[in-house]
Amino acid sequence: MKRLVMMSLLVLTGLFAQAQYTFLANNCSGQYNVKVFVASCEGGNCGGKATLVLSDKITGKELEPFHSLDLDFNLSDKQNAGLGWVELGKYQSPLIFGDFNFDGFEDMAIRNGNHGAYSSPSFDIYLGSANQKFIVNPEFTKLASENLGMFDVDRKTKELTIHLKSGCCYQQRITYKVTTKDIPSEVSSVIEDSSIGDDVTVITRKLVDGKMQKTVEKFKTKEYYREQ
Known about the structure:
With 228 residues, the protein is mainly β. The protein contains three helices and 16 strands. Strands 1, 2, 3, 4, 5 and 6 form a six-stranded mixed sheet that branches. It has a six-stranded antiparallel sheet with strand order 11-12-13-14-15-16. The N and C termini lie far apart (63 Å). The model is unreliable at 4-17 (pLDDT under 50).
């Protein structure tokens, strides 16, 4: 048992030793402080393999480390990555905390590069629990990794919304409710297509009594976008 613990500590120490730059992300979560160890920082951009260590803000208890193959975040002109333990701003962090499944516990999104549509940011999603365990969720991760960046979270309606596009003239947003099994389920979508002529075709789908109802409307482009 002691040997296993020692090996784990050596592996963790090795991971930290490989990381050349260290940061603090203490303003992005209401419950946790975060130490960030990242491999590379050049020209104001940091990325590559990274290890993140969460600790409870009240007790100081550390959770198991989390990892990213490409954390990818930018620094401001005033931040010098070479100084060590640079504090990241609340909206600058490659971490996003929030209640994504609306169960009352804080969840976490960790940047995993730029694998979204049009090389937009992508994230691994970990759902939290009462015992401070974070479990990666494939369905949420898919939403946050294959579209235009992180999904929107509406705490009032308890809905998630993703955004998609194709070129300049085709945009789509899809809204989901979260099931009791932590699976996002589509409840509505809106397509705006202005690729043909002077009109915008708006296709709306909405779940009503368990069935998707579809409507198609056309508007003059200038008038439609003037109202937006």
